[in-house]
């Protein structure tokens, strides 16, 4: 079954407009989920809202929204009043500016969506896509998506565009506060040389297929074992860490055992010569079978 668009509308740049659709680029629907079960009956448990004071169940028709102004004091807000605050939508992603692709810190990135053209607007869509790619810029646009006015970063992506909703400035916490207690240390000498050597030997390329969700696969193995009545998989013992000596750990990582020894660069240089100095891939191993595939197999 073809994927359904999450949103349909238009993208406008200058006086050019074309019809587009937004499609989910990332989904968690294939993850294993659990229901809450009554151990006495084996039946699924339903969620019930209860009054925090009387502990009595509150039917849906008696529920409304409330904003706490003081401890235990609320202003009641009708759901229709909330709905009335949703901005009017003209279903148009109107480009406000074209900016260098690196201008937006990825800490502001929210959710990615694939942006594709309607059949009648393919020429205009391609002109926008190729123009941005040639100019090495991204587009900033705004529109109402999913009942909120959102800022969207639009970039060329393959034959289409990728639209990433952005967090508002007030939603992103200050990095200064997060790092204010990090001491200002200057690493130099042998310690810095060893760190740089380790980094140079670990250079590679990002390959998403090389990274598997081991937690999800472990859950799949657990569920499969329960269904088949087999012994549950045992967790491997955790290896005991060595003493917390940073310099010793760096030397060991670099393949050195004695203080003052030079890092072994010969092997790294030989490898660089064979492939023309290009970085090696992070992993050439085949990815493990996904949790979704295990569920289908079972």
Automatic annotation (TrEMBL):
<dbReference type="GO" id="GO:0006310">
    <property type="term" value="P:DNA recombination"/>
</dbReference>
<comment type="similarity">
    <text>Belongs to the prokaryotic Ku family.</text>
</comment>
<dbReference type="InterPro" id="IPR016194">
    <property type="entry name" value="SPOC-like_C_dom_sf"/>
</dbReference>
<keyword id="KW-0234">DNA repair</keyword>
<keyword id="KW-0238">DNA-binding</keyword>
<comment type="function">
    <text>With LigD forms a non-homologous end joining (NHEJ) DNA repair enzyme, which repairs dsDNA breaks with reduced fidelity. Binds linear dsDNA with 5'- and 3'- overhangs but not closed circular dsDNA nor ssDNA. Recruits and stimulates the ligase activity of LigD.</text>
</comment>
<keyword id="KW-0227">DNA damage</keyword>
<feature type="domain" description="Ku">
    <location>
        <begin position="55"/>
        <end position="184"/>
    </location>
</feature>
<dbReference type="GO" id="GO:0003690">
    <property type="term" value="F:double-stranded DNA binding"/>
</dbReference>
<feature type="region of interest" description="Disordered">
    <location>
        <begin position="251"/>
        <end position="298"/>
    </location>
</feature>
<dbReference type="Pfam" id="PF02735">
    <property type="entry name" value="Ku"/>
</dbReference>
<dbReference type="InterPro" id="IPR006164">
    <property type="entry name" value="DNA_bd_Ku70/Ku80"/>
</dbReference>
<protein>
    <recommendedName>
        <fullName>Non-homologous end joining protein Ku</fullName>
    </recommendedName>
</protein>
<dbReference type="GO" id="GO:0006303">
    <property type="term" value="P:double-strand break repair via nonhomologous end joining"/>
</dbReference>
<dbReference type="InterPro" id="IPR009187">
    <property type="entry name" value="Prok_Ku"/>
</dbReference>
<keyword id="KW-0233">DNA recombination</keyword>
<comment type="subunit">
    <text>Homodimer. Interacts with LigD.</text>
</comment>
């Amino acid at each position: 079954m073809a994927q359904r668009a999450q949103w349909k509308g238009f993208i406008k740049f200058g006086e050019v407009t074309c019809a587009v659709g937004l499609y989910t680029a990332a989904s968690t629907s294939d993850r294993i989920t659990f229901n809450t079960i009554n151990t006495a009956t084996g039946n699924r448990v339903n969620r019930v809202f209860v009054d925090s004071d009387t502990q009595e169940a509150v039917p849906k028709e008696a529920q409304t929204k409330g904003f706490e102004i003081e401890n235990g004091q609320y202003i009641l807000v009708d759901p229709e009043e909330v709905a009335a605050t949703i901005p009017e939508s003209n279903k148009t992603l109107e480009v406000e500016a074209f900016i260098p692709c690196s201008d937006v810190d990825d800490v502001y990135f929210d959710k990615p969506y694939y942006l594709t053209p309607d059949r009648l607007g393919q020429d205009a869509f391609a002109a926008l896509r190729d123009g941005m790619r040639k100019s090495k810029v991204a587009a900033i646009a705004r529109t109402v998506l999913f009942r909120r006015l959102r800022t969207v970063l639009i970039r060329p992506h393959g034959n289409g565009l990728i639209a990433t909703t952005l967090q508002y400035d007030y939603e992103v916490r200050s990095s200064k506060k997060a790092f204010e207690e990090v001491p200002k240390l200057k690493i130099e000498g042998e310690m810095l040389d060893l760190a740089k050597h380790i980094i140079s030997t670990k250079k590679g390329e990002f390959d998403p297929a090389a990274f598997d969700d081991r937690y999800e696969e472990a859950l799949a193995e657990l569920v499969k074992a329960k269904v088949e009545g087999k012994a549950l998989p045992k967790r491997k013992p955790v290896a005991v860490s060595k003493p917390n000596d940073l310099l010793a750990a760096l030397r060991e990582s670099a393949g050195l055992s004695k203080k003052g020894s030079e890092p072994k660069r010969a092997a790294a240089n030989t490898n660089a010569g064979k492939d023309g100095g290009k970085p090696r891939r992070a992993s050439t191993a085949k990815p493990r079978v996904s949790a979704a595939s295990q569920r289908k197999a079972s």
